[in-house]
Amino acid sequence: MGDPKTPRRVWKKPKRPLNYDLMMDELKTLGTFGLKTKKELWKTQTELSRVRLQARSLLALRQEERERKEPILIQSLSKIGLVDQNSTLDDVLNLQVNDLLSRRLQTMAQKKLFFKTPYQARQAIVHGHVMIGDSVVTIPSYIVKTEEETKIRLIPESRFNETLSKPESDLGSPETENLEIETGDQPKNEEPPVKQDAEKESTE
User: Model-level pTM?
Assistant: First the structure.
């Protein structure tokens, strides 16, 4: 059983952690989802491998027993938004680590509360600015259920209520839009003055 003060590790390292391509992919994932360390990524990968193992074990069962246990797995995964109610075990086996990372509270809060970066969303969660329903959740890795998506909000006294706002378009910030408008207003047929002077000299 072991000492309860030192619980067993719930994640596994990759077999070749110093592989260059693997390191680059891990760093890209860390930046995309705002993870603090690679340990958070490895925990998610371990959890995904556990789900896939359950799906593969169900495929090896007899048809009657599989039909009885498969809906239980599909229902548990559909509650957290990984699959649909009508999904099959093949859909479970096709899940990627990004699918599970996108269900974290950190990622969901960034999308729904319009944080500028995932790291800003993480800071707000850790400092107790984000609520789910009537409860404050301070765990960025909390897996959000589908019924809880509409309940994510900021606490009333949060300073982010004044600073965060929905972007005007999907192109980027208002500053970027103004820059695009200014550059678009410039006439395209206008030639550089050096070229015009050269044409005048040639005519003379």
Answer: 0.75
